Amino acid sequence: MLVTLIPFFDEEMSVRAYSLFAQKTNYLLDPSMQGTRQYDGATQIPGLEIIENMGLDTLSADKEVFVEVNNISVFSDISGQCQAPHDRIVLLIDSTVVPEKMYIDRLCELKEMGYKLAMRKLAVRNFEVYRGILTLCDYILLDHKNIDISKAKIYFTNIYPRIRLCAGNIETQEAFEKLKTDGGYQFYEGKFYRVPVNKGDTEVSPLKVNYIELLNMVNASDFELSKAADVIGQDTALVISLLKIVNRMSRNSEITSIRHAAAMLGQRELKKWINTAVANQLYADKPNEITRLSLLRAKFAENVAPLFEMNMQASELFLMGLFSVLDLILNKSMEEALQMVKVSKEISLALIDGKGDFATVLDFILQYESANWQEVSRVMLVKNIEMDKVYDAYVQSLKWYRDLFV
């Protein structure tokens, strides 16, 4: 099983929903699954299986989750596959679900059960043909790259005023700003939030400089706990975060000082905590999804290290993932951003030039989070990596991220 979550944003860059994409089989390992066997188990919906196993809170807190269904699985016992609240699940269909009576009747049944419906990958020439289905849909995903989205917006606003419009496949911040200015869309989806805006030379705030200095301190070959504790003590948010994690580890011990708390964690655990906690504060003025993206990449990179036979470099891979959005945070090029932090040559080579062994892991993670399953499957085949181990690595990353903020 492979699974990833892709966010939907509102105009304020707050995440309002996630689209869950999953694949159960590595087709490159089993080519027969691309033939007639591709329908084996087609009534089982991988996304619902994941929600049932992991729980909605692990995946998306209180947000809706879009789950793919096809022209076969739409007739399955959907409520029996997943006990999650129906109003939190949006069934995502495409043009394989055709506007014929049996499909329309089934979609009506699902709506009566409380599920929401969304349509994607619908060609402009089929807009009129699909009236019977579109009248039932709560959302329509409009591909910003492949259709004239402004005309599509006018069409749906006039013909289906109750349907919510999602502008998808947005690649740049400039495109997002343009769509937002034009108005009329409820959700925005694409890699635009991961792409830095070229603003030229910008000053880094003094607070961020302090955080970077703390990161550099603990990522040196050796550092003093007392000095790190003194720096932490100057930031209330970090102090609260440190005390929370120490209290979870040792409920019966009375914490007498920040230095005491740091000593209880120890050098290794304090370093790991600072890298995550400081990153959370460093990214505080950015969309929450940037923090989530950075931390998930970090933990996922650490978790897949053994699969790439890089277990000894797991902590460095964690930092690579953590700093993979540093250019976004500091509004600088990656090369300029990395000049401010102390990272190994391997991390720098991967993040700036896309070269080296670390770059292989980074590219795998980027392909995975974009649900590019064909490339992910190719890498697993070349590296002889088992799909279930990748799935476990990602799921553990999601659980780890959830527990960070409990």
TrEMBL record:
Q: Which positions fall inside the HDOD domain?
A: 204-389
Name listed for the protein in its UniProt record: HDOD domain-containing protein
